[in-house]
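Q: Second attempt. The first request was missing the SMILES, so the protein and zinc ion are both included now.
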Amino acid sequence: MKRIRRRSAVTLALALLVLFGLGALLARLALRGGRWAAYSANAHVYHNGVLACGTLTDRNGVVLFSARDGEYAYAEEEAVRFASLHAVGDQRGNIGSTALGIFSGDLVGYSPVNGTDGTGGEVRLSLDSRLQAGAWYALNGRPGAVVVMDYETGEILCMVSSPAYDPLYGQRRDAEGMYINRCIGGLFIPGSIFKLVTLTAAAEHIPDLRSRTFTCNGSLELFGETVHCTGVHGEQTVEQALANSCNCAFGSIALELGGQVIRDTAERLGVAGSLPWYGGRTASGRFDVAARGSAPLAWSGIGQYNDLVTPYAMARLCAAVAGGGAVREGVLRAGDTGARSRLMDADTAGFIGDCMNYNVVYAYGKNNFPGLDLAAKTGTAELGDGSTHAWFVGYLRSGPPLAFAVLLEQGGGGLIAAGGVANHVLQLANGYYAS
Ligand SMILES: [Zn+2]
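A: Got both inputs this time. The predicted holo structure:
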């Protein structure tokens, strides 16, 4: 009797162990099955290494990509297809860090009950196809990038990189860097938009910055090298110096701060170094510390020398200024909220934001941006061959909570060229999202 009781106890314990193991397996299958099913060796859901099922829509339900049983479809509107190529991806899998790769687990449409039945799942992206098309038309074939993000959630509403090709037909002509998403994967000389970084460092390290004045006689002489300004600006406050985009004032500030302080600030703001992007990283922005008192140090503080940035990092910086110093990291799925990071304190953000608004009022002309409550900074980055990158970055102070960066490669002047593209996209957004 005693032996029987002992045996039944052992059997019961074994049965419980098996049940527990089975339960754990089922739980893991339910929780992680999508990821297992999305594993690229699963021939059931992949054709030539690209997902063969699932649907990606924009935030309003417009289909951007769909696949079923290896048949692919894209947005109906041609401009949306071109504009969304880099953010969404295509059936050939030529482009990295796309929504297709990021959300493959959800697109497989795995369910613990039915497994992968071939129809796939649906993911609603944060992109707005109307802004995508608008940015594409505004770029008008010129190489460049447009990023627009909601600074309250981090949702990316617009991510356009040019040149692109129609994913429906594949690439038909060879253009330089066509496979690169310039928004997160392109590095460009920032020119004067970098003055936002130098200004942030100055606000944090020069106690009397806001009461000081800076004199510009048209150039700075440094050990026989000349740093030229765009004009002769005379005596200016730091706000006026930013609005004038005065190289003498910001060159002097860079000399006063030293390269290491600016570099530390640029890294903390995410402008130098890379940013996390869905398990990967963006291209790594660059700021080299030049010798104390040198002309290269002055140039580095005004966005030249060896400085390089991504458009996304600049939009994110503007989002942080808009958000009182804290930013929501960019997300590509509608309704998601990015992780919160603090880049600067609220007082500094308020000051930078006021300066950026003063730029528009004092220098850029509110009439060029009708109906927009804009804070911005222009950049016209010199490439050394006489051509310039045109930049325009900033955010809306009221209305829809949007931060943005626009780049036109070798596209001329910041205000006219890039500012024009920004205005076109922001006017659309203001119309769609004003409430
Ligand atoms: Zn000047």
